[in-house]
UniProtKB/TrEMBL annotation:
It comes from the Eukaryota. Homodimer. Gene3D superfamilies: Hypothetical protein af1432 (1.10.3210.10). InterPro entries: HD/PDEase_dom, HD_domain, YfbR/HDDC2. This is 5'-deoxynucleotidase. Signal peptide: none annotated. Its cofactor is Co(2+); Mn(2+). The lineage of its organism: Eukaryota, Viridiplantae, Streptophyta, Embryophyta, Tracheophyta. One of its GO terms (molecular function) is 5'-deoxynucleotidase activity. Residues 113-217 form the HD domain. Its EC number is 3.1.3.89. It catalyses: a 2'-deoxyribonucleoside 5'-phosphate + H2O = a 2'-deoxyribonucleoside + phosphate.
């Protein structure tokens, strides 16, 4: 009896993620990454190198999705992906544009618009439950409330732009961004959330409006501490303008800490 052939050595790379190239009858290949540390291959993503490929049919032994399962990648998926990346690239400006109020006060390396929106989103995430308030909606509103500034920039009172004109500019910018996204349900949701905030037309908008001010005075306190400045303007401009109990309590805590710090400095 012939001896059993020795098993072939594993030629896969030792890295956690290996790529297996599969050839299909249309002569274009799919590059599919698998996790080599798993006992059964796990499909991570599929990239077609054929721009005209209307669909991809995957065998269950490849996909790991169960008997008879298949994935269809329609041609409109590429346009949807293109719109999404165009939109996200435009939103990069939110990361690179510094908040003008801090720039005007000579803060070195000030926060960006995206920094501001991110911490507001965290505020919405960690706040206590409030009857009648949808906390998840608050998070969404916080994420999009300054999104039009990706086009118009951070317009502050010192710019002398009338409120109605600022609103018109930002509305047009938002419409343009929704077109870049390709319209549809997600674009409509962004516009609805943005308008809800602008019009202060819900309990969620009331709370996020307060978070906008809370985040600003918290940042002002941090810059006072880090840069040795006195930024009274930001505290005076928000005094008495908080609408919710949460906003009032959080603002009071920040002001209390600021007063203690100023008292310690004077001693």
């Amino acid at each position: 009896m012939a001896s059993m052939a020795a098993p072939k050595a594993n030629t896969l790379s030792p890295s956690p993620c290996n790529f297996q190239r599969l050839n299909y009858p249309h002569k274009n290949s799919l590059r599919i990454p698998f996790n080599s540390e798993s006992t059964s291959p796990r499909l991570v993503s599929i990239h077609s190198h054929n721009p005209n490929l209307d669909s991809i049919k995957m065998d269950q032994t490849v996909s790991g999705f169960g008997s008879g399962s298949e994935t269809l990648a329609h041609s409109n998926a590429s346009s949807s992906a293109s719109s999404a990346i165009d939109f996200l690239t435009l939103c990069h400006r939110l990361k690179s544009t510094k908040r003008k109020g801090w720039v005007n006060h000579g803060i070195n390396g000030p926060e960006s618009i995206a920094d501001h929106m991110y911490r507001m989103s965290l505020m919405a995430l960690i706040t206590s439950d409030i009857p009648g308030v949808n906390r998840e909606r608050c998070i969404k509103i916080a994420i999009v409330h300054d999104i039009a500034e990706a086009i118009v920039g951070d317009i502050t009172p010192s710019d002398g732009v009338p409120k109605a004109e600022k609103s018109r500019m930002e509305t047009e910018a938002l419409d343009e961004m929704c077109k870049v996204l390709g319209g549809g349900m997600r674009a409509e949701e962004i516009k609805e959330l943005w308008l809800e905030y602008e019009n202060n037309s819900s309990l969620e908008a009331n709370l996020v409006k307060d978070f906008d001010k809370v985040e600003m005075i918290l940042q002002a306190l941090e810059y006072e501490t880090e840069h040795g400045k006195v930024l009274d303007e930001f505290f005076l401009s928000t005094a008495g303008k908080f609408q919710t109990e949460t906003g009032k309590k959080w603002a009071a805590e920040i002001i209390s800490r600021r007063n203690s710090r100023l008292a310690n400095r004077s001693n």
